[in-house]
Amino acid sequence: MQRLDIETAVGSDTGNRYSANFDVTHLVERPLLAVVADGMGDGPGSAAAGRIAVDTFVDHVTRAAEPGPNTFREAVAAAHARVSRVGHELRTLAGCTLTAMIATPQGCWLVQIGDSRVYRWRAGLLELLTTDHTMAWLGAVHGWYPFDSAQAAAARYQLTRYIGHGSAPEPDVLSVTMKPGDRYLLCTDGVSEQVAYHDLERLLGQNTPPRAAVSALLAACAAAGGNDNASAIVIRAN
pTM, whole model, 2 decimals? Predict the structure, then answer.
């Protein structure tokens, strides 16, 4: 992989809807290991799921001699097992999303399960690199209902894949090539649901330092109502 100088920043805000923050983040700049997770609901299962999933995933990746797609799938499988066990112990729903970006000697990888997201700004274009594992995404793709309808809004809460799911579904694992000038955003749905695409495009396209970009993103979430926990990691390649 081409060696690039990268800058990173992470931030999270509880917002106004919940009394606690059920998002979990992890960021190490070199070698890059960035993770965001979003607990499902606001109970003890949600709080436990996010922390357990991130800790388990990070532990598997950092202990691997040569981390790669198999490592990432094994890490998610281990997180499924631990989160499911906690759900049984607590007798409540325990689940979360998990989205990660990992740099290895073989290249950069994205790992995706749930509806947190990875965006990339490159050469004036902001692209969503990940797929939401929700019924809303399926409905939008297949035209089941209008995107801004009540049905679509309800379907955003119907996840088809998440950590703790009884079927232990595999994550999407994607290879990406990082180039000078790229900006990446990993975020929970508290960001993507509250900050419109063109505002994300503008904020990432300004090429401000990652710390300033994260602050601006969280401020935009607050201005939109702060209706959810919001977490963001911004990565700039130079």
Answer: 0.96
The domain segmentation of the chain, as residue ranges, is: 6-237
For 98, list phi and psi in degrees, rounded to 5: -155, 125
Q: What is the pLDDT of residues 30-49, one digit of tens each?
A: 999 999 999 998 999 999 99
Residue with tokens 């929700």, as numbered in its chain? 134
Give the pLDDT band (50/70/90) at residue 3: confident
With contact defined as beta carbons under 8 Å apart, do 93 and 157 qualify? Answer: no
Amino acid code (one letter) for 80: H
Residue 176 near residue 129 (C-beta atoms within 8 A): yes
Q: Residue 217 is inside which H or E element, if any? A: helix 210-223
Which of 63, 82, 92, 53 is closest to 171 using CA atoms? Answer: 53
DSSP annotation string for 76-113: HHHHHHHHHHHHHHHTS---EEEEEEEEETTEEEEEEE
Q: Which residues of 190-227 are buried (b: 16+ CB within 10 A; e: fewer)?
A: bbbbbbeeeebbebbeeebebeebbbbbbebbeebebe
- Cβ atoms of 235 and 210 within 8 Å: the answer is yes
**What's the CATH number for 6-237?**
3.60.40.10
Helix, coil or strand: residue 154: helix
Tokens at residue 77, please?
Answer: 């499988």
